[in-house]
Write a structure and sequence with these properties.
The complex is a heterodimer of chains A (about 120) and B (about 110).
Chain A: E1 4-7, E2 10-13, E3 19-25, E4 30-38, E5 44-51, E6 57-58, E7 67-73, E8 76-81, E9 90-98, E10 108-109, E11 113-117
Parallel strand pairs in A: 2-11
Antiparallel strand pairs in A: 1-3, 3-8, 4-5, 4-9, 5-6, 7-8, 9-10, 9-11
Chain B: E1 5-7, E2 10-14, E3 19-24, E4 31-37, E5 43-50, E6 55-58, E7 61-66, E8 71-76, E9 85-92, E10 100-101, E11 105-110
Parallel strand pairs in B: 2-11
Antiparallel strand pairs in B: 1-3, 3-8, 4-5, 4-9, 6-7, 7-8, 9-10, 9-11
């Protein structure tokens, strides 16, 4: 089946630093990629949707200058948490959807990245 | 935003028993999907059921959809300890087909 990878699996950083998380679709081309964050024992909250070669669409309440998303190719999207603070600590999950038929295409999820900001 | 709500929040059963989880949602949907998440891991897609479907099976999984009641259920038969995980339903509406998730049901299967 389709595989989505994320790197790194976990990261610990100091407050004020920036952290980049990569999301790759390994065996398919992802027209659309999604970024979610999940707090412990909570639901996944959609942060933004990105289409290859265009600007990401952010959900209400998500700061686009804080969470920079780049979808430069059909197999790679990156999320950069800029000037991270402890409240940004969370589990970040990406997903990718192949093709151009959103009504029938399944989203495939990455394994997630645990970010801890000290 | 559209969001499914799972019930119960947590479920603890013995191996071999069946586990049933329910999901309710608020407005008409295109599709409803069930996902599984092991602790601290990513999501695994289990089943997608479309709004014009009523029931789907996949191995030990059975999903039903009642659009009149705006609810779905996930049944896991003959549960195993390895089924221990959180289970989420996700619904999508409109033309974007972007699923939004409920809070999940935490299932513990005791060996």
């Amino acid at each position: 089946g389709a595989v989505v990878s994320q790197h790194p699996s976990w990261v610990i950083c100091k407050s004020g630093t920036s952290v980049k998380i990569e999301c790759r679709s390994l065996d398919f081309q992802a027209t659309t990629m999604f970024w979610y964050r999940q707090f412990p024992k909570q639901s996944l909250m959609l942060m933004a949707t990105s289409n290859e070669g265009s600007k990401a669409t952010y959900e209400q309440g998500v700061e686009k200058d804080k969470f920079l998303i780049n979808h430069a190719s059909l197999t790679l999207s990156t999320l950069t948490v800029t000037s991270a603070h402890p409240e940004d600590s969370s589990f970040y999950i990406c997903s990718a959807r192949p093709g151009t038929s959103p009504s029938t295409d399944t989203q495939y999820f990455g394994p997630g990245t645990r970010l801890t900001v000290l | 935003s559209q969001q499914g709500e799972e019930d119960p929040q947590a479920l603890s059963i013995q191996e071999g028993e069946n586990a049933t989880m329910n999901c309710s949602y608020k407005t008409s949907i295109n599709n409803l999907q069930w996902y599984r998440q092991n602790s601290g891991r990513g999501l695994v897609h289990l089943i997608l059921i479309r709004s014009n479907e009523r029931e789907k099976h996949s191995g030990r999984l059975r999903v039903t959809l009642d659009t009149s009641k705006k609810s779905s259920s996930l049944l896991i038969t003959a549960s195993r300890a390895a089924d221990t995980a959180s289970y989420f339903c996700a619904t999508d509406v409109g033309g974007s087909y972007i699923p939004t998730f409920g809070r999940g049901t935490s299932l513990i299967v005791h060996p």
